[in-house]
Amino acid sequence: MPGPRVASVRKRRERIADLQPLLGALYPDLTVSLDWGTPLQLLVATILSAQCTDERVNRVTPGLFARYPDAEALAAAERTELEELIRSTGFYRNKAKNIQGMAKRLVAEHGGAVPDTMDELLQLPGVARKTANVVLSNAFGRNEGVVVDTHVKRVAARLGLTSHTDPVRIERDLMELLDRDRWHSFPWRLILHGRQRCHARKPDCAGCEVRHLCPSAGRV
Known about the structure:
By secondary structure, this protein is an all-alpha fold.
């Protein structure tokens, strides 16, 4: 269902300013729900999380990282073995291809290390802006953009913060509305709110703590 008609930039900034302290109080923990210890592990886990729950990814990655502890090991992996280890995350053949291609590129061009710039990350197989933003903000503390996943896309539209459906244009809208130091925290809290209240099929509008700021409340 399309989101509500989007107000002016000024009105949206006022709304987002009102939303930030409320969502901050509801979701104070900004720790990403994927388990990781190194930038490479976070990059791999984020690739695996596409169309898969973080809980499922967290069940798969301990064995995966034990078997392939670095980019060199991933690059040299037997593809069928890699596929079998990640099979339960879905789309495992394509994910294995991207993970191994990414690892080979890291070994060939970055000494096996994950780069810390948007441009370099986007050159890696399987890495688009969402994945790059997750890695940059969580592993390197750099706010180069805004994470836009399915939850952010849905909740931002329902809150009237964007009229777009394309993730890149949604990201631009949110970057325009937010101060740069909130580019990490605000979308992560939208993700948590999407999981907790603003579900795709049946949002809990009656129990929603930001209902009074949502033009879609009770209309979805």
